[in-house]
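Worked example 4.2. Below are the chains of a multi-component assembly; read each line carefully before continuing.
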Amino acid sequence: MKILEISKLLNAEICCGEDRVESEVCSACGSDMMSDVLAFVKDQAVLLTGLVNSQVIRTAEMMDMRCVVFVRNKKPSEEMLEIAKDSGIVVLTSPMRMYEACGTLYSNGLGIKGENESHE
Amino acid sequence: MSEPLVYTFAVDGDNFTSAGEASVKMKKNLRMLAISPDIIRRVAIAMYEGEINMVIHAGGGVATVSVYADKIEIVLKDNGPGIADVELAMREGFSTAPETIRNLGFGAGMGLPNMKKNTDSMSIESALGVGTTISMTVNL
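Applying the procedure described above to all two chains together yields the following C-alpha cells:
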C-alpha cells in the first residue's frame, strides 16, 4: 500500500515527507509505548501512535520505519518534523482514534507482517 | 589485525529531547561503511536503548563504538547511581523509571533485555554510587 493511500484512508494531513508518499509499505503497528515498539516490533514500516514527542520519531528511525501516523489529531512539533525530515520519515496526523485507524488500514489490506517476515 | 574505527559520543543527560542523537549519528556512520542493514538496526536499537537509559537514570555519559573487521563493539559508560541488582534489572518488565518517563513512552522494563537480545554478547559492570559500564558486541 502506498503511503498516499494510507493518508487518504485515514483522512490524514501530511505534515512532512510529501516527496515520499508514493513509497510502498507492507505492514504497520500501533503503540503508545516506545519501549514495546523497540522490543517487539519487527519489519513494520508504519507506526501509528497517540504519543507525541521527539523519541517517537527517533524510535521509528531506529526501526527503519518509513511513516509515523499520529492519531486523535495530535500535532507534531516543528522540532519533531525536522528530525523526521532528516531521517526521511513521512509524518501524518489523522483525526481517527487508534482503534479506528488501525482497523481501517488492516481491513484495507495493510497487515502486520513485514516483507521479510513469513506468516507463522 | 587492522586498527578499529572508533566513534565517541557525549550523551547529554539533561535533555530527554536530544536523547538518541548519538545513535542516529552512529547509524549514519555505519551506513557509510556499507554494513548490512540488519546489523545496523541491531546496533542502533541496542545503542538507543542504552542511550535512553543513560539519560533517564544516570544523568548522561559517554558512548564509544568501535568497528572492527569482524565485530562492532559498543561501550556505554556513565557516572550515575549504579544498578543495585543487575540480575533483577535484566528481568523483562522490571523498571525503576519514574512515572514521568513512562508518560513519554519508555520505562517498560524492556531496555536491558532488548539490548541483550539485539547483541551477540553483553556485560554489565556497575557499582553503587560510582556508575555503570555496559559493553556489547555485535558480530559481523
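Take a moment to check your reading of the output against the notes. The radius of gyration of chain A is 13 Å. The first helix of chain A runs from residue 3 to 9.
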